[in-house]
């Protein structure tokens, strides 16, 4: 009977046990083992990858990660991949050190049915499940476009490479090179192999910067090397001159602190790799190629990115804290569940004993009352358990609400990022439009100024000739002509001021300072104004604290400054007034001050805020207004000189302009042997006139048969040149470049006089075509132009011109220049004939040098590190001697010559189909097959495989 009662009680309580077991928690997820082969854990980016994986794994307790570090060793990584596969894993994540050596081990894992996720870098095979990482080619292209925008598409760039054989380095460099190709004035002048190490690169970078002082921006393949570059720039004193672009973007504070100018975001793919792995293991749809985007982090968005990162870190901490609370509640729930099981077991025993007692001792009412009390206690326990279950439900609801709030915040952050990107793009468009408008305005002023030089030529040429013709002119006529020349020179001065304004705007005005006496310099300028001031009764007083005050200054710049200031002072000072010029030391002798004070009417309040603005003309009353250029030009020139131009004024009492100049200037602003263009022109004129005296007889005999071709689009100038040269030579003329070149090839003249600025074919293009054609390459060319800047004259000489004359020019000087060039050409022909009679069988020294150079390079083609220094050492020359020699003979650099020899040899080796393309690349000294392929395609417009297929078939 007792047994039946016990069985009955057990049967009644069994459903209770089943119900509690069902409520004990969710069913257990299957456990997955993931192997992670990391090429290296060094560096901020790699640590961020691992941290991202750990954050994502906190949401997947069923996934267990085992990570092995290869320490940048491809062989070790290959062995570690096989070790992970042997240990039994459900999925493999690989971040390769090098694509080639790691590929076999990855293929073995894939062929055994193990899903493979590639992180950041690829392998040379397609046997993998998914790829997660950034687009390094896009990173390089974005860096190139941003660098071009910083330098206004004109400058020199230095690149700091990452690992030597890393695909990341190759792709970032290739993208950077492709991006720079879109900007012809952006030049990659040097590369430094940083190998991801911010310390090791510093000596190499310092050497490269000293060899290339023109570098304006550095592109580092990660932020750590960018910080190393920043240390080198601080040591060399170039931090303000050279900007740095890094890659990673994990620490926006580096941009905020101006350690880096900008950083390209290269997102750590740790979270994305784990999410992809979870989808693969759960047999859910997934993307095979997961390419993460990039963006530029600079001063415009660094603070926003920093705030977003801090917000995400804060949210991650909240989630981790909530997960900890959840684990604590689950542990408490498990403990209480165990107590409930114990209580139910006790209840079962009590029921069994109660049944025995009911059967054996029905008369004992006290035992029954105790059983009743026990049942009441059990009911209380059940109510407590129900109450706690409700508490658990409330906590789960709060966690769900918090997750929803986190999702809302994330969506809000994404929306803000999109708005910021749209605003940034709009600002870039507006800035580009503003730059284009400004450039169009400046181009108009410059072209207009150049056009003014042509009529000035037609005025000054005849006037100079009439004034130098002799006593045939009356006194009145000579005075009138002198007046015309003086005002024409004044107009030319205004044109030059416009051109100086353009030079300052585009940053082409250079300071070439020499050490001199500033007091004597100012005195010479003051003496120029003494006569016009005396005519109006204006007194000029020059006061100096010392008889001589030396300083470093550029006289060509400062004479324009003081000339404008003194001109204004004399102009705005009334008759019988005073202009006081004082020179004295300042800043404890570290600087000099030149003050020019007048007793004029002063400057009004409304004009003071705009006095140094370009083209601003204040209210001058009855005084004639100026061009609005003088003071702005003076202000800009003083700033170029690292000085300061200030003023003070009292209405009705006059104005004082003060120029403060440092006595010492940096080495890059000094010129130990300054070259004044006017002095150079005078020296050339003297040499030409001296040569003319000695060659007059020989030239006069041949002048009647000498043919001169004049190419000038302005009809008046063309007629003027034809008349002036027609008295001594036979002259043919053309009014455009195309006609002029055609006549030159048909007539083969003895000399050509050509204008530079012509529609259709410019003068520089005419010279280039003349030099390129074997029929006309020997003809001397004189270029005439209104473009008088030094760099423009250099451009003309580089194009092949023999002489470069600036409008307006002296007709006599032009005529004598023609005679001298013809005499020099005759001497060159005689010298050539003498050399031509030498024994041509023996090679010249230049031919022997080229033979030795070619043999040396071909002997060491397999040397990957073969450079200019190595070739110079083999030939017994210095680096500079070798560079100048090769440049003079071949017109190319040593590095380009070595690359050309390698690619020529590659064309021969590829015809042997028993050699693989990889073997050919390494045999010829290329660092990677991908670099070899890109270089080969650039040379032959075919890939190595296409080249081999085409030529072997033929």
Automatic annotation (TrEMBL):
Residues 447-665 form the Histidine kinase domain. PROSITE patterns: HIS_KIN, HTH_ARAC_FAMILY_2, PROKAR_LIPOPROTEIN, RESPONSE_REGULATORY. SUPFAM superfamilies: ATPase domain of HSP90 chaperone/DNA topoisomerase II/histidine kinase, CheY-like, Homeodomain-like, Homodimeric domain of signal transducing histidine kinase, Periplasmic binding protein-like I. Residues 707-822 form the Response regulatory domain. Pfam families: HATPase_c, HisKA, HTH_18, Peripla_BP_4, Response_reg. The modification 4-aspartylphosphate is found at residue 755. Its EC number is 2.7.13.3. It is an enzyme of class 2 (transferase). It catalyses: ATP + protein L-histidine = ADP + protein N-phospho-L-histidine. Residues 1-27 form the signal peptide. InterPro entries: CheY-like_superfamily, HATPase_C_sf, HATPase_dom, His_kinase_dom, HisK_dim/P_dom, HisK_dim/P_sf, Homeodomain-like_sf, HTH_AraC. Keywords: Coiled coil, Phosphoprotein, Signal, Transcription, Transcription regulation. Residues 851-950 form the HTH araC/xylS-type domain. Residues 364-437 form a coiled coil. This is histidine kinase. It comes from Hymenobacter ruricola.
């Amino acid at each position: 009977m007792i047994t039946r009662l016990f069985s009955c009680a057990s049967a009644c309580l069994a459903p209770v046990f089943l119900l509690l077991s069902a409520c004990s928690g969710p069913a257990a997820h299957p456990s997955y083992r993931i192997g992670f082969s990391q090429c290296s854990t060094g560096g901020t980016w790699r640590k961020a990858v691992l941290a991202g994986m750990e954050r994502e794994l906190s949401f997947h307790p069923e996934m267990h990660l085992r990570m092995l570090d290869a320490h940048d060793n491809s062989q070790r990584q290959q062995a570690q991949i096989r070790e992970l596969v042997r240990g039994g894993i459900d999925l493999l994540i690989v971040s390769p050190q090098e694509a080639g050596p790691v590929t076999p081990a990855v293929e073995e894992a894939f062929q055994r049915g193990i899903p493979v996720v590639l992180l950041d870098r690829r392998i040379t095979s397609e046997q993998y499940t998914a790829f997660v990482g950034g687009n390094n080619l896009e990173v390089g292209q974005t860096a190139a476009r941003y660098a071009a925008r910083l330098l206004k598409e004109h400058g020199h760039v230095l690149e700091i490479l990452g690992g030597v054989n890393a695909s990341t380095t190759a792709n970032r460099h290739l993208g950077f090179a492709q991006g720079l190709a879109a900007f012809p004035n952006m030049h990659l002048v040097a590369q430094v192999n940083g190998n991801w190490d911010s310390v090791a690169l510093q000596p190499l970078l310092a050497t490269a910067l000293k060899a290339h002082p023109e570098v304006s921006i550095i592109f580092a393949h990660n932020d750590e090397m960018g910080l190393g570059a920043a240390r080198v720039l601080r040591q060399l004193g170039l931090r303000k001159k050279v900007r740095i672009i890094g890659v990673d973007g994990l620490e926006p504070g580096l941009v905020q602190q101006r350690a880096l100018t900008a950083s390209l975001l290269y997102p750590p793919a740790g979270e994305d790799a784990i999410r992809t792995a979870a989808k693969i293991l759960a047999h859910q749809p997934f993307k095979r190629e997961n390419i993460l985007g990039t963006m530029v982090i600079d001063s415009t968005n660094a603070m926003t990115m920093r705030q977003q990162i801090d917000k995400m870190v804060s949210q991650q901490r909240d989630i981790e804290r909530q997960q900890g609370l959840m684990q604590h509640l689950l542990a408490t729930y498990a403990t209480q569940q165990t107590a409930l099981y114990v209580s139910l077991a006790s209840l079962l025993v009590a029921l069994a004993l109660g049944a025995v007692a009911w059967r054996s001792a029905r008369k004992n009412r006290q035992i029954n009352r105790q059983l009743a009390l026990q049942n009441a206690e059990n009911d209380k326990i059940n109510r407590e358990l129900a109450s706690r279950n409700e508490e658990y439900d409330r906590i789960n609801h709060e966690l769900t609400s918090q997750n929803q709030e986190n999702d809302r915040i994330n969506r809000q952050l994404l929306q803000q990022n999109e708005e910021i990107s749209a605003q940034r793009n709009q600002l870039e468009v507006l800035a580009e439009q503003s730059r284009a408008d400004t450039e169009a305005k400046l181009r108009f002023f410059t072209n207009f100024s150049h056009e003014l030089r042509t009529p000035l030529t037609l005025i000054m040429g005849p006037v100079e000739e009439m004034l130098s013709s002799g006593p045939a002119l009356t006194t009145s006529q000579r005075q009138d002509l002198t007046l015309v020349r003086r005002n024409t020179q004044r107009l030319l001065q205004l044109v030059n001021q416009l051109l100086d304004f353009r030079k300052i705007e585009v940053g082409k005005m250079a300071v070439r300072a020499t050490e001199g006496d500033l007091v004597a310099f100012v005195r010479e300028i003051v003496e120029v104004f003494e006569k016009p001031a005396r005519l109006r009764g204006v007194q000029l007083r020059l006061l100096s604290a010392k008889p001589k005050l030396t300083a470093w200054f550029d006289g060509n710049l400062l004479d324009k400054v003081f000339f404008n200031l003194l001109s204004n002072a004399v102009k705005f000072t009334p008759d019988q007034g005073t202009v006081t010029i004082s020179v004295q030391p300042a800043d404890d002798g570290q600087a000099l001050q030149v003050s020019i004070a007048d007793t004029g009417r002063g400057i009004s309040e409304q004009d003071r805020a705009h006095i140094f603005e370009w083209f601003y003309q204040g209210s001058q009353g009855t005084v004639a207004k100026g061009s609005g250029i003088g003071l702005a030009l003076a202000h800009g020139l003083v700033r170029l000189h690292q000085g300061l131009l200030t003023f003070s004024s009292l209405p009705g009492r006059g104005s004082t302009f003060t120029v403060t100049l440092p006595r010492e200037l940096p080495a890059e602003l000094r010129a130990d042997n300054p070259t004044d263009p006017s002095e150079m022109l005078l020296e050339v004129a003297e040499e030409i006139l001296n040569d003319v005296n000695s060659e007059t007889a020989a030239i006069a005999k041949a002048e009647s048969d000498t043919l001169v071709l004049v190419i000038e689009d302005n009809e008046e100038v063309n007629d003027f040149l034809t008349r002036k040269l027609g008295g001594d030579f036979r002259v043919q003329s053309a009014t455009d470049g195309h006609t002029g070149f055609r006549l030159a090839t048909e007539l083969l003249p003895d000399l050509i006089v050509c204008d530079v600025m012509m529609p259709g074919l410019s003068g520089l293009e005419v010279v280039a075509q003349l030099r390129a054609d074997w029929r006309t390459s020997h003809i001397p060319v004189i270029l005439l132009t209104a473009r008088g800047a030094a760099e423009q004259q250099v451009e003309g000489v580089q194009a092949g011109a023999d002489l470069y004359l600036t409008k307006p020019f002296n007709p006599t000087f032009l005529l004598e220049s023609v005679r001298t060039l013809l005499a020099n050409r005759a001497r060159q022909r005689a010298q050539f004939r003498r050399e031509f009679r030498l024994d041509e069988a023996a090679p010249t020294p230049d031919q022997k040098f080229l033979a030795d150079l070619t043999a040396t390079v071909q002997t060491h083609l397999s040397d990957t590190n073969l450079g200019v220094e190595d070739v110079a050492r083999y030939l017994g020359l210095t680096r500079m001697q070798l560079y100048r020699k090769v440049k003079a003979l071949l017109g190319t650099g040593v590095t380009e010559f070595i690359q050309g020899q390698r690619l020529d040899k590659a064309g021969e080796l590829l015809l042997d189909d028993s050699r693989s393309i990889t073997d050919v690349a390494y045999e010829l000294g290329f660092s990677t097959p991908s670099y070899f392929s890109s270089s080969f395609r650039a040379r032959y417009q075919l890939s190595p495989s296409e080249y081999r297929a085409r030529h072997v078939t033929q």
